[in-house]
Design goal:
This protein is mainly alpha-helical. The chain has three helices and no strands. The longest helix is centred in the middle third of the chain and has 31 residues. It starts with a helix and ends with a helix.
Length: 91
């Protein structure tokens, strides 16, 4: 998933602000938490991009030439993505 730097910072800032304002977390150093949160979101997005690339390669390697966007392609994409996510495990 392609997220701009600004979008990542916005999402992290919103999450941290809500956690703090709703009393769900104490955040003594907001800028440090913001930086760490942005790193985590970037890692998550990178992992998703790697899985997406692996799935697309796997579908492209099929002999029967599945057309992207077709219902068969979508079914295969979902199935292979779930397999790749299980292989990579939670992070």
């Amino acid at each position: 998933m392609k997220l701009s730097e600004a979008r990542m910072l916005f999402l992290v800032r919103e999450a941290l602000t809500r956690l703090r304002d709703e009393g769900l977390a104490e955040i003594p150093n907001f800028s440090l938490a913001l930086r760490r949160g942005r790193e985590m979101v970037a890692q998550w997005a990178e992992r998703g991009d790697q899985i997406d690339a692996a799935v697309r390669r796997k579908i492209a390697s099929l002999r029967r030439g599945v057309v992207e966007g077709s219902s068969e392609w979508q079914i295969l994409y979902r199935r292979y993505r779930e397999e790749e996510q299980r292989k990579k495990g939670p992070r």
